[in-house]
Amino acid sequence: MIVCSCNALTDRDIHAAIDWMRAADPDTVITPGKVYRALGKAPDCGGCMSFFLSTMRKNTNLKVPAVLCGLNETRKKRTTST
Fold first, then answer.
1. Is residue 9 packed enough to be buried (19+ CB in 10 Å), middle (13-18) or exposed (0-12)?
2. How much is the pTM?
3. Rounded CA gap, 51 and 67, in Å?
């Protein structure tokens, strides 16, 4: 299904880019901009962004890298203990 009509990107393109980025670097933070760049494209009008994001969220490889999990709690502990 076409997600971004300006760039003719499909949901399969988006999922393939996310899967490729996660396989290449398990600790990377995957953003819409990185997905566009991985596909050799750039966002144009932005009208697709909500659909683009919802498509990204459906991918099981779109997760917070383990190294970043719990970071907010760690920072909260540091600020309350000082």
1. buried
2. 0.79
3. 28
